[in-house]
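User: Here's a structure from my thesis project, written as structure tokens. My advisor, Dr. K., wants to see whether a designed sequence matches the one we expressed. Can you design one independently, without my sequence as a hint?
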């Protein structure tokens, strides 16, 4: 399968923002891309149906005609870790349906871009971490890290966790570049021996094309979309 998984160093680091930017850039390059959010918790109920907002945003970014169920296999109402969100509604997250979702789209599309939940060591069940599922999928990894003080440690830990699982790390995107230089990019590249794909500046997060413009200006997208 040709696929990319985006993970974060933590929750709320801008994974969906970066994923939307990359996906729309792929669309504008003429790539047949599909964007997936296989597991999402914290989905509000609208007219009796759970609506995973990140998955909806990815559908828009990809200009896709896919239904929610074809993009997000597991969705839960409570904004907690996926394993607990599933447990609270009497369900269990199994790797098989997610891997089938990824493989099915890989057969139909030129490129599959999937967004994880939180970081690599987020539990999906009592026996499965998200990083283990990504390793089994064979997808390469992009790490999204906030460009803030403390991100060096968290990012290097994520790189180590990926490599222990033999996951190919394509690079790191530093999100929301601050006005003061913190030395994050150089330190992560040096100590992690990992490419820095760029530093995505603050942009209008409501405008997917503006995000794609920012990504094209500031990120090296060729290793992802080349």
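Assistant: Designed independently from the structure alone:
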């Amino acid at each position: 399968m040709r696929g990319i998984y985006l993970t974060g160093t933590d929750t709320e680091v801008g994974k969906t923002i970066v994923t939307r930017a990359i996906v729309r850039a792929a669309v504008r390059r003429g790539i047949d891309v599909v964007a997936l959010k296989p597991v999402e918790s914290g989905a509000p109920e609208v007219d009796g149906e759970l609506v995973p907002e990140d998955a909806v945003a990815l559908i828009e970014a990809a200009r896709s005609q896919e239904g929610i169920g074809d993009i997000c296999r597991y969705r839960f109402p409570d904004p907690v870790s996926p394993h607990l969100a599933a447990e609270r509604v009497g369900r269990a997250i199994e790797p098989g349906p997610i891997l089938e979702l990824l493989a099915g789209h890989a057969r139909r599309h030129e490129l599959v871009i999937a967004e994880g939940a939180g970081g690599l060591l987020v539990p999906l069940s009592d026996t499965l971490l998200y990083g283990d599922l990504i390793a089994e999928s064979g997808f390469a990894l992009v790490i999204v890290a906030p460009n803030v003080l403390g991100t060096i440690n968290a990012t290097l830990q994520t790189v180590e966790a990926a490599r222990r699982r033999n996951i190919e790390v394509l690079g790191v995107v530093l999100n929301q570049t601050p006005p003061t230089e913190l030395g994050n990019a150089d330190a992560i590249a040096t100590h992690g021996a990992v490419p820095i794909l760029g530093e995505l500046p603050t942009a209008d997060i409501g405008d997917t094309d503006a995000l794609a413009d920012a990504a094209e200006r500031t990120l090296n997208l060729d290793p992802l979309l080349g």
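When you compare it with your expressed construct, this may help: The chain has a mean pLDDT of 95.
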